[in-house]
């Protein structure tokens, strides 16, 4: 297959009316990535195998500007179909980008779950044939039907709305994925007409033309119904998301991850896992996430762009965003790590603790009810319950620096910029706004008074 040049066209100019959305259909996400992103990734994989490097052509129409903005990094050619007049018209709009060499693979921008193996099987067919990816469906309603003759040879595709009752009974359908010898393409497209129930230029009409011209036509059935699923409405989008997640979890299980309930893990990005990782129920992983050997993620956690190093534990209901958690660290339950947080080995961050843009060195602990923002926290520091780094003066952010082995008494406010020396102790309830010297005790606290003989007010009996 490597010797036959491959060109790919992705059709994505349809409006997607049934989504009832202001977002173009192909920009709706599955697994955290727009539908069209999945299709482009497939195209890229196939083109990487091909002998001569070509770029996929993306046919856009409705919402084209939004599409181009989202896909500004995509290595593709853009073709604008001004007035969508059907799939044949869509492919015709891509002709200026195509050459008559090799084959043209047509993919639909709203079919995100196709497997690359399925398409490779399609490409293994003889290069001079028109090849249709088909599927056998229990309920073929809505799809174009594959018409075969008595010998089983494909003769034509008929659309739902143009089909006779006996054609409608055919269960083999056109998935919309076609492979066409490039030399015939322009000629066939030029001969399309709109004499059909929808008044459109049907790409599928080229099948009958190929048969008439003596070009072989093959229908290759897809292995599973799930992978050919096209997205037209939110119901299909939701089903597609579930199928995508099911596949990902299946892969994780094979890789050796313990997933407590495969139906209650969502991965919306790129996940790298080590050995013996355990993930409890209702976890969402977004963006680039790394879970190293022996990491355990408790129930109801959300991790986004996070690196969790070996043996670290994330306890239930924690939210980790843009953070690195060091080996053996324990985070949560109910912890929030915000971007720029770096926890070193064996750090503990406990319940209702928020950490932002801060580094906590090995063995540091903030176990309860604290805000640590824009801080450098030394090794083995203990941050008592209720401690707040007052990092914002209403105009700018300032840093708090805490030396190794310092002990911050509960309910202290550290008014940044401020530094606490190594081994310093801060008395509970202090407001620290100047440097606290190393080793010593610093506290700001009104002296305690007791008034002997003081009487608590009593309620007067009603008169
Ligand atoms: C098409 C096929 C049908 C097949 C089905 C599979 C035709 C005539 N029919 O039907 O045999 O069973 O797909 O899902 O090809 N598009 C454009 N410009 C247009 C029209 C469509 O770019 O003018 C794009 C859409 O964005 C979509 C793809 O082409 O990605 C398919 O269009 P759609 O209208 O969904 O096709 P169907 O009518 O369902
Ligand atoms: Ca249509």
Q: C-alpha Rg, in Å? A: 31 Å
Approximately what portion of the residues adopt beta-strand conformation? 25-35%
Determine the N-to-C terminus distance.
104 Å
Largest sheet: 13 strands, parallel
Structural class: alpha/beta
Poorly predicted tracts of residues? none
List the helices and strands and how they pair.
Blueprint: E1 6-12, E2 29-30, E3 33-34, H1 35-49, E4 57-60, H2 64-70, E5 77-80, H3 87-93, E6 103-108, H4 116-123, E7 130-136, E8 145-148, E9 154-158, H5 165-168, E10 172-181, H6 182-190, H7 206-212, E11 217-221, H8 234-254, E12 258-259, E13 265-273, E14 278-279, E15 283-291, E16 296-297, E17 302-308, E18 313-314, E19 319-321, E20 323-325, E21 330-331, E22 336-337, E23 341-343, E24 348-351, E25 354-356, E26 359-360, E27 365-368, E28 371-373, E29 375-377, E30 382-383, E31 388-390, E32 400-402, E33 407-408, E34 413-415, E35 418-420, E36 425-426, E37 431-432, E38 441-442
The structure holds uridine-diphosphate-N-acetylglucosamine and calcium ion.
Briefly, what is this?
With 463 residues, this protein is of the alpha/beta class.
